[in-house]
Amino acid sequence: MPTNKKEGLIFGSLMCFLMVLGMSIYNLVIHNSFSLVALATGLVPGFVVAFILDNFVVGIVAKKIAFSLPINKESKLQLILTISTFMILGMVTFMSLFGMLMEGGIPADFLGTYLKTWGMNLIAAFLYQLLIVGPFSRLVLGWVQNNAADDSAEEAA
C-alpha cells in the first residue's frame, strides 16, 4: 500500500493506466473494432476520466465503505480485496457509461445495453484487476518503496 502522496500517485496512475489500457483492448476486441488508432483515440480520454473518477470519486467512496465494514483491517489481503472490489464496482459503473457514450451516444435501448455492457466489463475488470494489474502495480510500488529506502540509507551514511 502507498505510504505517501508520491507513492499514491505512482501506484494510482499505473493501476489506472493499465486498467484503461486493458479494458480498452478488451472492449475493442469484443466489438471487432480493434486497431491501434482506435486504441490510441480512446486511451487518452479514457485515462483522464478514469484518473479523475479514481482519485476524486470512486477511490474515496470505496475506501470509506471498505474501512466501515467489519473486516480484519490488520489483514493486508482482506483490505486489498475489499477496496479492490468496491473500486472495480464503482469504476465499471462509471466507465461502462463513459464507453457507451464515447462509442455512439445514448442507444435506444439504454438500460438493456448498459446492463449488458456493465456485466461484461465487470467480469473482465474483476479478473484483470485481481490477477494481473493489482499484483503488478503492487510489485512496482514495492520496487519504488525499496529504492526510496535504499536512497535514504545511502544519504544517512
Automatic annotation (TrEMBL):
Keyword Transmembrane helix: yes
Any Pfam family: DUF2798
Membrane spanning stretches: 9-30, 36-58, 79-102, 122-141
Keywords for the protein's UniProt record, in alphabetical order: Membrane, Transmembrane, Transmembrane helix
Alphabetical list of InterPro entries matching this protein: DUF2798 (IPR021529)
Keyword Membrane: yes
Superkingdom of origin: Bacteria
Name by which UniProt lists this protein: Integral membrane protein
